[in-house]
Amino acid sequence: xxxxxxxxxxxxxxxxxxxxxxxxxxxxxxxxxxxxxxxxxxxxxxxxxxxxxxxxxxxxxxxxxxxxxxxxxxxxxxxxxxxxxxxxxxxxxxxxxxxxxxxxxxxxxxxxx
Length: 113
What we know:
three-stranded antiparallel beta sheet; 4 helices; alpha+beta
C-alpha cells in the first residue's frame, strides 16, 4: 500500500479492519479492495488518505473525488457484504446522489490477480 501515499494511521486502520476478517472470503475482500486502491492510485489519481467508516473503506484522491472500493467479483454473500450493501443501497440510488459507479473496475485499472 506504499503507492497509495496514505498516512501511516490510515494504513493501520485499514490493516486492523482486514486482520479481523471473519474468514478467508472476507480477507480476500480486503485484498481485492487494496488492489483497487493501488490501481486507482497508480492509473487515475494518487490516493492521499484512507478513512474507515465502519466496514467501508473511503479513500480520498488527490484530484478531489472520494473513492469507495467495493470488490464483488463472485458476489459471495457474507455478513460483511450484507452490512456494506445495506449502507450502499442500490447503484441507482448512489448515482442519484451524485456518486459515480464504475463497473468493471478491473478493465480500467491493472488489478493483480
